[in-house]
Amino acid sequence: MTKPTPTEIGHGYDAFADLLDQIWGENLHHGYWDDTFDETSLEDATNRLTDKLSGLLTIEPGDRLLDLGCGIGEPAIKLATAHDIEVVGVSISERQVQRANDRVASAGLAGRLSFQLADAMELPFPDESFDIVWALESLHHMPDRWHVLRQVARVLRPGGRVAIGDFLLVSGADGQEPDAARVREVSKGVLSIVGIDEYLSNIRAAGLVPEAIEDVSKHTQPSWGKAAVRFEALRDQALPHIGAEQFELTLSRFHGFSEESTLGYVLLTARKPV
Ligand SMILES: C[S@@+](CC[C@H](N)C(=O)[O-])C[C@H]1O[C@@H](n2cnc3c(N)ncnc32)[C@H](O)[C@@H]1O
Description:
The protein is an alpha/beta fold.
């Protein structure tokens, strides 16, 4: 199976919208747990991951932040509630953009936050127009992460920073060798990941200087298993929307990811030199 195009990804998110709410909650990203005894709910754990990533940044009042792959706007709303900043979010899903704009209007934040349909591969923003770019669990969907990072470097002002949460190829449990091809196989062709050295050299090649690097794989690992349990419970509701084939494919991906210990997760920040 080949990697879906941005348009197909957008249609997928549109079709899965109601199910995703029931699987992940308002944040469409992994959770963060302290250890295997931590019984924090998936909803609270996903908020925690947002806090972990924002904690790696210094966010100043008045900063202008671009949220690349904004979902239904929850991380952006959390950031803008905690800090007096302006946010522009983009998603490739029309329905997400609509929902994110509705949600900020209800929260009385429409003056500072806005969301629009756009492909991160071709960002429709002028050079040097943002202080911060935020990409939480969205780069893995994009046809070329490194091209997107070059776009990020273009729209950041000198001294601006990017914050990334992304999947990472790591050494697995019991010394299992990292194997990108195996992860790709488990994902049925949709997920390409690289190790930290390759990731950092592409950040540098895009003209950015890596700053914070946190491998949080052990903390995010429970996410897929918890999502699989919730997804399986939604079978009857899901079948009329996505059909049996898509349901089984998605469920087998969730189980495969949950068992693949070389599929890790990294939080990163980088700065555009002045
Ligand atoms: C796993 S969700 C994460 C959403 C959000 N960052 C969050 O944490 O709740 C991935 C997001 O990336 C967006 N996305 C995927 N490919 C994209 C592209 N080429 N351009 C813009 N957004 C994209 C999806 O529409 C979705 O909003």
